[in-house]
Amino acid sequence: MKVLLFGIAKDIIGASEFEVPAQPKHPSTVKELKDVLVVLFPEFGTLSSLAIAINSEYAEENALLHSTDEIAIIPPVSGG
Amino acid sequence: MSTTYKNVFTQGAISSEFIAQAIAKHQSKTAIGAHNIFLGQVRVDTIDEKVVAAIEYSAYEEMANKKFHEVREATFEKFDLTCMHIYHSLGAVKAGEICLFVFVSSPRRKVVFKALEYVVEKIKAEVPVFGKEIFEDESYQWKVNS
Question: ipTM score of the complex?
C-alpha cells in the first residue's frame, strides 16, 4: 500500500511517497495505518494532529482502506 | 475522482497590482454594494531567537483545490454573496508579502463581514496547505495554524 506524504510527514519519512510494509499485516483501517506509522516513525506520535485522507477526503479512524484508494498523510495544516 | 476543480494556487507572493485589478474587475458588477477582503501576510515571528524570513508553501494540490471548492460552496449556501474569489500562494513568500487573498462581495455590507470570517477560518482549518517557516539562517520549521 502506497501513501502520499506532505509537509512535515515528507520530512519525517524522507520521501514524498511511502510503501507501507505488508508484514506482519496490511493495515485495513485508518487507525491501523496510523498505528503502523507511529511504530515505524515515532515522530508522527509527537505531531499536534495526524489525519489520513482517502481519495482527497478526510477519513474517520474506522474508515476502510482499499488498494485502489489514493491515501495521503495529512500533518497539521498551516495555510494562509 | 477525475473531477478537476478550479486552481486556487499561484506561484510566489500575491502582488498588490493583482489585488487592485481584482477590485477593478468588479466595477461592472453593479448589484454589489459591499466587498470585503482578507489578505494573509507573512509575519516576522521570532522563535528561539531565530527570525522568520519567508514561508515556503506546499500543498496536496488536488485535495486542496477540492477543499477550496467545498469551502466556497458551503459559504455560498450560508450567505447571500454575489461572488467570491480565493487565491493562495505556493513556493516561497517573503516576510511582509501576501500569501492569501480572499475577496467576497454582496449587495449588503453585513453579509460580507460574516462571510469573510467564515471562509478564512475554514481555509485555515481544513485545506491541506503546509507552510515551512524559513529562518534568516536558512534553517526551518513547519508552521502549525492556531
Answer: 0.95
Q: Name the superfamily (CATH) of residues B9-25+32-142.
A: Molybdopterin biosynthesis MoaE subunit (3.90.1170.40)
Name the class of domain A2-70: alpha beta
pLDDT tens-digit series, residues A22-69: 888 889 999 999 999 999 999 999 999 999 999 999 999 999 999 899
Residues of B with CB under 8 A from a CB of A: 1, 40, 57-60, 62-64, 66, 88, 99-100, 120, 123-132, 142-145
Q: What does the alpha-carbon distance between residue B28 and residue B102 come to, in Å, rounded to a whole number?
A: 19
**Residue B74 class from Cβ within 10 Å (0-12 exposed, 13-18 middle, 19+ buried)?**
middle
Contact B143 A78 (CB under 8 A): yes
Question: Residue B130 and residue A78: Cβ atoms within 8 Å?
Answer: yes
Residue-range domain boundaries for chain A: 2-70
